[in-house]
Design a protein that fits this description.
Glutaredoxin; four-stranded mixed β-sheet; 18 helices; 55% helix; 8% strand
Length: 420
């Protein structure tokens, strides 16, 4: 039994989960109680990404994030396993927790439901392509997701969803691990328990960049842009220093792409798109030389180059939203910035009549596309005006039916796609 230490807070449900797992397996360990207001230097060193507990230290090697710790414990000490043995059942357990080397199954019917531009869908596509696994790609329409998606993912009602032999698996990282277990050729996860836990940690850290990237997408002025970029830089600095600060290794795992590349790469493509769409600089050799070098190597791998989303299409989508914001900003400042209930003062006039239906259409698009356009923080006066406008009884009674607008947009979009 190697030296085992657990850093945590006695009251934390995440720490308690680790303690239960260790005790159920009869594994002796040293319990190091951390002070939330004065965390030890060791903890901050062991978990430079999140700077939080629990952290399990096994033979001097730190493992962070409670579910990754449990997986590592279960892999290293297989007695009394808390995790399922069947890969599909294991994937379901990981999904229910919100988020091993197992026998290969025969190739069966494989379908992938997703959006072409989503970094989470791209993560799964790259995994399938790298392993040479044939599959049916089912492109979902964000305006009109298929009934199968809601049936397959009743909890989150989102993509990607992989359907293997009729069984749905949800959440991109869980899908990637499932694929890696079922088809072990070209392994994406390290075989060593510690290296595997480390890779899983950085996959989760990459996924946690989403809010920072989203903030840049929704920034409406230079100050907001600068704050959003700085937040992204914080994440990228950690990834640069901890994952790719090695001139010897071409990729995180050495000479071949592994699960960390699959997780980080699609998000860097999103950042590239935002750089072009918003005319800002986020990446670059000077600020992130190792990360940029790694990303260039990653993009040059033929199967990656062929399957990354088309940048020009993604830029066009971002620029469309940016163009709407430009118009709304002018309307916000020039028409509704004086605190009046409606443009004419206390009564609706022709300007309110002109803008009302257009804003209603934007609200419908927000709901249908899953994007935020009429943000109350970005456009507080416009948002307040619209609430006042639609609360007027005669307006409320005569606004177009939202369901009918959605139906019209869907039909119009289908015709547009068919003609292109």
């Amino acid at each position: 039994m190697a030296n085992l230490k657990l850093h945590g807070f006695w009251y934390s449900p995440f720490t308690v989960r680790e303690k239960w797992t260790l005790r159920l397996k009869g594994i002796p360990y040293e319990d190091i109680e951390e002070d939330r207001f004065n965390k030890s230097l060791q903890l901050l060193e062991y978990n430079p990404g999140y700077k939080r507990a629990p952290v399990l230290v096994h033979a001097g090697k730190p493992i962070c994030e409670y579910m990754l710790i449990i997986k590592c414990i279960d892999k290293t000490w297989p007695q009394n396993p808390p995790l399922a043995i069947d890969p599909y059942e294991k994937a379901l357990i990981h999904c229910s927790c919100w988020l091993g080397d197992l026998p290969t199954r025969s190739m069966a019917d494989i379908k992938l439901h997703g959006f072409w531009y989503s970094p989470f869908t791209v993560k799964v596509k790259l995994t399938l392509e790298l392993k040479g696994i044939p599959y049916e790609n089912i492109e979902e329409d964000r305006l009109n997701m298929s009934a199968q998606v809601f049936q397959y993912n009743p909890v989150y009602k989102r993509v990607p969803v992989l359907v293997h032999d009729g069984k749905p698996i949800c959440e991109s990282t869980i899908i990637v691990e499932y694929i890696d277990q079922i088809w072990p050729h070209y392994p994406l996860l390290p075989t060593d328990s510690y290296e595997r836990a480390l890779a899983r940690f950085w996959v989760k850290y990459a996924d946690d960049m989403v809010p920072a990237i989203g903030s840049l997408t929704q920034s409406s002025n230079d100050e907001e842009q600068e704050k959003a970029i700085e937040k992204i830089w914080e994440h990228l600095r950690v990834i640069e220093d901890q994952c790719f600060n090695n001139d010897v290794k071409k990729f995180f795992g050495g000479d071949t792409i592994n699960i960390v590349e699959i997780a980080v790469g699609p998000f860097l493509r999103c950042i590239e798109v935002l750089e072009e769409a918003l005319e800002v600089k986020v990446l670059g050799d000077e600020k992130f030389p190792h990360l940029q070098s790694w990303y260039n190597n990653f993009k040059d791998v033929p199967v990656i180059k062929e399957n990354l989303p088309d940048q020009s299409k993604m830029v066009a989508q971002e620029k469309a939203i940016e163009k709407i914001w430009e118009h709304l900003k002018v309307v916000e400042d020039q028409c509704f910035g004086d605190g009046k209930n409606v443009f004419g003062g206390d009564t609706i006039n022709i300007v309110d009549i002109a803008f009302g239906p257009l804003i209603t259409l934007l609200v419908v698009l927000e709901d249908a596309l899953g994007v935020k356009i009429l943000d109350d923080e970005k456009f507080p006066h416009l948002h307040s005006w619209y609430n006042n406008f639609k609360d007027v009884p005669v307006i409320k009674e005569n606004l177009p039916d939202q369901d009918k607008i959605v139906a019209f947009i869907k039909v119009f979009r289908e015709k547009l796609i068919a003609s292109s």
